[in-house]
Amino acid sequence: MGGKRTQYEIYWEILTYCRNPQSFTGIIHRCNLNSKIGQEHITFLESKGFLRRLEEGGQSLLKTTEAAQAYLGAFKEMYLELYSRGPEFKL
Amino acid sequence: MENEVNGRLTREMRSFHALTMVNIAGAGIAMSMGIATLVNNLLPMFREQTILFLHALNVVAVLAGSVFALRWLISSAEMLDGFQDVRESREDDDPTALIVENLAFYRENREEMRRLILGSRATGAFFLVSAALQLKFLVSQTGSSLFSLMSVVGMALCLALGLAGVYIPSSLGRYTSTWEERLSESEETERRLGELLEGGA
After folding, report:
1. H or E segment and range at residue B76
2. For a Cys staple, B41 with which of A29, B9, B46, B58, CB 3.0–4.6 Å?
3. Taking CB atoms and an 8 Å cutoff, what residues of chain B touch A74?
4. A7-82 domain in CATH 1.10.10.10?
5. pLDDT category, B201, cuts 50, 70, 90?
6. B44-74 per-position pLDDT tens digit
7. In 3D, which of B166, B61, B73, B176 has the Cα closest to residue B124?
C-alpha cells in the first residue's frame, strides 16, 4: 500500500498484515514504510499490546494480538460508515 | 453493508478509471491537433523565408495550447498509473483496504486534480475559441470543396475537444467534491480512533 496515509491507517495496515506472523522487513516492505518510521509504529503498537514478538525458525516475527481486535473492528466499522454516508460518484 | 460498499467502490473506481481514460484521449488528440496546426503554420513561413504575422501569431497560440495539452497528458498518465496500483491492490473482499487505498490516493493527488481541472478547462476554452474562429473562417471563405470539407473536420474536432474540456473538469469536480466530503469527515474518525488508542493498553 502507498499514498498519503494517516498514522491510524498505517496502524490498521500493520495489524491486518500481522494476523499471520511477519518479519520486520516484511512489514515495512508491505506497508511501504522506511525502517525508522516502521520501527516507531511497531514500537507504539507493541507498547499498546497490539503486537507481540515470537521466535520461529530462529527468526523474530511479529503477530497481532487479541487486544488489537477492538481497534481493528472499530476502524473497519468507522471507515465503512464514512464511505457509505456521502453521495456516490458517477460519470 | 460490506457487499453494498464493495459494489459502490467497484462502480466508483470504474467511473474514475473511465474518466482518466477520457482525459488521456482528450489530451492526446489535443496534442496531435496542436502539432498538426503548428506544422501547417510553420510551412508557409519556411516557404516564404519570412515571418508572416498571422501564421506567427497562430504558432504562438498553438504552442501555448500544446503546453497545456502536454501537461494535461502527463498528469492524466501519472494519475492513471497511480490509480492502477489502487485497482491492483484489491486482494480479497474486504472493502476497508480499498477505502484506505482510495483515500490515500485522493490525499496524494488532490492538488494535481485541481490543476488538471484548471488545465483541461483552459485547453477546452482554447479549442472552443479555435472552433469559433474556424467557423467564422468557413462562413467567409470561398475555397475548393475539399478545403471546405477539411475545415469542417477541423472545426468539428476543435468543438469535440472544447466540449471535452467542459465535461472532464465538471466530472473531476464532482469526484473531488465527493472525496473532499469524505476526507473532512475522516477527521472526526481520526479523532475517535485516537481516543480509542489513548484508552487502550
Report:
1. helix B53-88
2. B58
3. 192-193, 196
4. yes
5. very low
6. 888 888 888 888 888 888 888 788 788 888 9
7. B166
